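Researcher: Please translate sequence to structure tokens.
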Amino acid sequence: MEHLPDTPTSGRSERERPVTRVLVIDDSNTIRRSAEIFLKQGGCEVVLAEDGFDALAKVSDHRPDLIFCDILMPRLDGYQTCAIIKRNPEFASVPVIMLSSKDGLFDKARGRMVGSEDYLTKPFTKDQLLQAVQLHCRVVS
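Model: Translation complete:
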């Protein structure tokens, strides 16, 4: 029998997962792919969602340790998406970091009001993304 490396695919032992699972929600394919590459280089498992509705299903299915959420998206914006996630007691403790091309005080304050823990301005660097993961997730080595 071939020995397979331990992978976080089974979902049976959520607490013993060796890597940080990060959900990236952004309607821009470029931003999603950039974040995915940076996070994977940092040793994270990455789940991608292209809008708020897609994200809500994936939060439940994949149980991320951290969520990066774009603010300006069609149908369900980042503020609404964050608020819905935070209202669910099962996911209220999952850190949400808002992503925006705007660096305004109002946007940051509104993000805090709906429950986000932090705010990153796009375009972000690999270091900024990985620092946010380390700051908000204790499971990262």
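Researcher: Any highlights?
Model: The two ends are 31 Å apart (CA to CA).
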